[in-house]
Write a structure and sequence with these properties.
The protein has eight helices and four strands. With about 180 residues, the chain is of the alpha+beta class. Helix 1 packs antiparallel against helix 2 and helix 1 crosses helix 6. The chain starts with a helix and ends in a 5-residue tail after the last helix.
Length: about 180
């Protein structure tokens, strides 16, 4: 059985091609994001994949999360995902679609993980540093992980910049164990 990420990527790429063709990428992004949020709960997914409930009822229930403004193609995608029992992939499809959208718009996705919540000035400085480093706009996701002890870990694509206290301590321990650090 294919991994959810592979499935999500395939659906997102197909949806993105349709959105480009129909010149409604922003609408697709909005609707997929909303559907991704709506299906992030396991109980919702179980209900949407319940074969006891008619397919059309399940499709209408999920499309109902978008109100009256759902794209017809989105309704088709939702019906297809429900029929194939792939509703759990919707949050990942939304994420992959956003990645494709950002790539096309020249936006770099980055995350900053810190031991404590960052102040607005710190967030602005990190964003400015990444924008300078990449020469692109930045979509910055903020995370808090007390295990870092202090400092910040930045992830920009595949690049990890570890400025955390935990990372520094681990590097120091490694150097001491290998004998490359002498007193």
């Amino acid at each position: 059985m294919p991994r959810t990420g592979t499935v999500a990527r395939r659906y997102a790429e197909a949806a993105f091609e349709l959105a480009l063709r129909d010149d409604n990428v922003d609408e697709w992004l909005f609707e997929l994001t909303e559907l991704g949020r709506a299906t992030s709960d396991a109980a919702v997914i179980r209900r949407l994949e319940d074969p006891q409930v008619p397919l059309e009822t399940r499709r209408e229930a999920l499309i109902g999360a978008l109100g009256d403004r759902a794209l017809p193609q989105m309704s088709n995608l939702v019906g297809l995902l429900i029929r194939r029992r792939r509703v759990e992939a919707l949050p990942n499809i939304a994420s992959e679609f956003r990645r494709l959208y950002n790539k096309r718009a020249g936006i770099v996705e980055a995350s900053a993980t810190s031991a404590l919540e960052l102040q607005p000035a710190e967030v602005a400085a990190i964003r400015a540093h990444i924008e300078k480093m990449t020469s692109n706009k930045v979509e910055l996701e903020l995370r808090v992980d007390p295990a870092l002890l202090g400092g910040v870990q930045l992830r920009v694509g595949d690049l990890l910049i570890d400025g955390s206290v935990r990372g520094r301590l681990e590097r120091l321990r490694s150097r001491l164990e290998s004998g490359t650090l002498t007193p």
